[in-house]
Write a structure and sequence with these properties.
The complex is a heterodimer of chains A (284) and B (201). Chain A is α+β, with helices and mostly antiparallel strands. Helix content of chain A is 23%, strand content 14%. Chain A contains ten helices and ten strands. Chain A has a four-stranded mixed β-sheet with strand order 8-1-10-9. Chain A has a two-stranded antiparallel sheet with strand order 2-3. Chain B has 201 residues and is mainly alpha-helical. Chain B has a two-stranded antiparallel ribbon with strand order 1-2. Chain B is globular, with a radius of gyration of 21 Å. The relative contact order of chain B is 0.14. Classes of the chains: A alpha+beta (284), B mainly alpha (201). At the A-B interface, helix 7 of A face helix 6 and helix 8 of B.
């Protein structure tokens, strides 16, 4: 597959976001995050570092915006006059939303990020030339750039810590963009196992690293095509539709009690992550 | 001094560009020149003797007898020493040949044979043997040696295995773009997956 072939036949290679007449076939990976259950403990973030070979960059580089946390906990402080320590906060885990109509994909000059048949937004490090357009165009700022060659910079994985690197995930080099993959290495294994047994991946058979460690079970992940999947039931219960840019919650008054929403939906990115609004009081 | 440096840089540049031009000019994917590097193995294992045709003095042993994980795992697996000894302890006729002597030396020292990797894919590639073997050998009923040979070449005629195919991305895709029958009897065809994350990790 030469690059000429790729560019000339782009429509054949590019998976577009599904519609009524072109639905997802076997898998559509999706997530839902219950903000009422999220305590902001950061376990998801830590698990992601371990699973996906993320470098811990340190205070200084972090301050320069060189961080690598594919899932980060955003804090939203209450603005009710109380000072810090007594001030309430709300937490929101932010990761790549695996948009069906991803803004990052259309701006990549080399086609390094595109859609898979499973509805994932793939990032191929080998093709990436580091233009960082995708990051500029991502409304969620969920893409992270390798400013340094971390295996050789700052002794990020000193012996014997390099032994704990996940062999199923590439250790990225300098000059490429990276982001949450929905733990695609786990998905591939689960899909292969299921295929050998002549079935689809069962609900709960595959977990993302962040979901696996979440102590309150705030994150659920699964196949949206599978009617028995928990994540699909949650989406349905909240009347959140993948193909719409405005959900029932925002349109009809009777549905105002629904909690499900997707972030920046009005940009028509059709994200694959649904959040459940927080009802309880802010944490102190 | 600088003049010499500049000249040598120019020369190197010329050689490199000529070399890359030559590489670009060679298009056929499997030619005699396109072989992988020769890999020195601790024991010169004769694949032709074990898996070769009976007419040429081979034993026609199924590839998966030794590379037993190919049908059920990502990797095909190098057989443990027990597998070699399992047969060779009762084959008296070749017991005193130099290669078998070496084999039993490893066995008596309780050490694994340090076989070297021949078909080494880059770390960023995910290749699953199971999927390919299940599709071509078990679903399509292709002969094992033919199915393995798509990527590994004609190993049954080699002694020490050597890479015959380029194992490059374009070469993988050239097959993934073709339509293959779903199974031995069906006329339905599908082609291999062509999204990047299927193979890139």
């Amino acid at each position: 597959m030469s690059i000429t072939n790729l560019l000339e036949n782009w429509s054949d290679f590019r998976q577009q976001h599904p519609s009524e007449d072109r639905p997802h076939r076997e898998y559509k990976w999706a997530m839902s995050i219950d903000l009422d259950a999220c305590t902001g403990c950061n376990a998801c973030s830590v698990a992601c570092y371990a699973e996906n070979n993320l470098p811990v960059v340190g205070k200084e580089k972090f301050a320069h915006g060189h961080s690598h946390h594919w899932i980060r906990i955003e804090r939203y402080w209450d603005n009710d006059g109380r000072e810090f320590a007594d001030q309430g906060a709300q937490f929101l885990p932010m990761l790549c939303q695996q948009c069906e109509s991803a803004p990052c994909e259309t701006v990549c000059p080399v086609g390094a990020t595109n859609h898979t048949a499973d509805g994932l937004n793939s990032q191929v490090y080998n093709r990436c030339v580091g233009s960082r357009y995708c990051n500029a165009n991502c409304p969620y700022k969920a893409r992270y750039f390798n400013w340094y060659d971390y295996p050789t910079t700052d002794n990020v994985w000193p012996e014997p810590m390099n032994q704990q690197l996940n062999p199923d995930v590439t250790v990225r080099g300098k000059g490429v963009m990276e982001k949450c993959t929905f733990c695609v290495q786990r998905l591939t294994v689960a899909k292969s196992n299921a295929r050998s047994e002549g079935r689809s991946v069962l609900d709960g058979e595959v977990q993302t690293a962040c979901q696996q460690v979440c102590p309150t079970g705030a994150i659920s992940f699964g196949n949206l095509v599978d009617p028995s999947a928990k994540v699909g039931k949650q989406w349905k219960q909240q009347q959140v539709d993948l193909n719409k840019d405005k959900q029932a919650k925002d349109v009809t008054e009777s549905a105002a009690k629904l909690r499900g929403y997707r972030i920046l939906e009005e940009l028509r990115t059709y994200p694959s992550v649904m959040y459940l609004e927080q009802l309880r009081e802010s944490a102190i | 001094m600088y003049c010499f440096l500049r000249l040598s840089v120019l020369l190197v540049g010329l050689i490199v560009s000529a070399g890359s031009y030559a590489v670009n000019a060679v298009q056929p994917l499997t030619t005699a020149d396109d072989l992988g590097p020769k890999v020195e193995q601790p024991i010169e294992f004769p694949h032709d003797r074990h898996a070769g045709d009976a007419a040429k003095g081979g034993m026609q042993i199924n590839c998966m007898y030794c590379h037993t994980y190919a049908r059920r795992s990502i990797v095909a697996g190098i057989p443990p020493l027990q597998k070699c000894i399992g047969c060779h302890q009762s084959i008296e006729s070749v017991r005193e040949t130099p290669r078998i002597k070496k084999l039993f030396e490893y066995w008596e020292a309780k050490k694994a044979v340090p076989w070297k990797k021949v078909h080494d894919l880059p770390d960023f590639v995910r290749f699953n043997h199971e999927r390919h073997i299940q599709r071509f050998v078990f679903a399509q009923n292709k002969p094992v040696q033919e199915a393995c040979g798509y990527c590994h070449g004609d190993v049954k005629t080699m002694t020490v295995a050597r890479r015959q195919k380029p194992l490059s991305m374009g070469w993988c895709v050239s097959c993934h773009q073709k339509d293959h029958p779903v199974d031995a009897t069906s006329t339905k065809t599908t082609h291999g997956p062509n999204d990047c994350w299927q193979c890139h990790k």
